[in-house]
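Lest this sound abstract, we let one protein speak, letters for residues, whole numbers for local backbone shapes, and leave readers to judge:
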Amino acid sequence: MLGQRGGSGGRDWVTLVSGLVECLCFAGVVFGWASLVFILKAEGYFSDFCLNTTGANSSVLTDCSGQDEQFSLVFTVASFLNNFMTLANGFLFDRFGTMAARFLAISLHTTGTLMVAFSTAVISTLLFPALSFITIGGMLLLITNIQVGNLFGSHRSTVITLYNGAFDSSSAVFLIIKVLYERGISLRSCFLFMSACSVIHLLRTFLLLPKTHIPYPLPEDYTYGLSCGTSGSHSVEGAGRAGGADSKRSEPQSDSVPFQPEDKPPSQTSEEREPSFSSCVLSWFFLFHLVWLSLMQLRHYLFIGTLNPMLTRLADGDPSLVSRYTNAFAFAQLCGVLCAPWNGLILDRSKGKQRAPVLPLQYLTFALQVISRSFLYGGNAAFISIVFPAHHFGKLYGLVMTLSAVVSLLQYPCFALVKGLFQGDPLYVNIGLTLLTLLTFAHSLYMHLHCRARAAQRRAVRGSSAGRPADELKLKGPEDSD
């Protein structure tokens, strides 16, 4: 039963819920950037980039496109590092375990929130390292929490996508800060409070998480965290060391890896049966998954990074309208934690005179963006955990996020193109990106063709297995099938 492992069921649920709150309140707050930009503009950050220009009838207009570009650049750098540093974070997590990874995550996140708290309009450039530290630390918090899904057996993918949904929904935290700011609470006070919450992260690290890793499948006698009567020691088995030699020998294999050999000769060791890290990276599974994530992510990042200037243009600069639609977007992000588990449930069940768009239409855009983003990141983590060996998860997850980060850098030139050549109208850039994202269907098509071929191969093996030695029944592994 879900979460029931002798006397550990209660702790599993506390770990799950507390990790969910942690991801919901801290991990992905940077993606609520549109709400924070509204505050930063009011505080005068990068205001020296606004210029007075002469319009029609000799009227004086204020051109703040330079200010918008600086805010877009802050988000571009932060979102790039969010993914680019995930490779290093993944290696750190695989090699040194949960405790070391979380110490780094908490240090970065706390430093970033303190830097925002003590930043001013005079030192606006402090936002570049501050937001970068927050986003890198938040992603590392998510990575250390994803393994909690291993505690829940057949519901593993559902838990993983739930955590990713919480990561998406945490963008609404900046909405809460915006609402508090409009009611007189200073930006500094809000971020000092976020910094103080690091104490809670430390308590979870010591009390509710292992020093190394949570193995999968889970041994019946597995324990973790601080236990009474054990002098505060963590129960750490060799099976929990993802990527180590001990884990290769003792960690059972997931029954959901679709490209691994299914009929293995008993004489083979686990090292011989499992695909290597390099073979995983060079597989078509990984390549098509990378294309899918990179293009979809670029589309989402550009949408978030350009939302404030787009709303400003559609609302003719009316700050009350911009505020209303910014709030609507942030509220929509809260639904990410509700949308994401459906992706995991599917995986668990199946393994084994403005030009259009008019301003009110953006409500529909917000809803579709939340659903798409929830499926994107939840599906990314769940796909890697299902398709590839568990002890490669951190490295593969980090690598795909890092490579996709390189593609995400295109959002800044896209933003510059919109502000320059297209005079603030993102229509043609959006059309181009929509056509480009059609390439992502190659991922689903390859998965469909591969699974159909494997099904036919299994039927052929079953039909000709009588009287044949075991060595002849071995199906193709990832090195052969790609």
About this structure: The first strand starts at residue 51 and ends at 54. The first helix runs from residue 9 to 27.
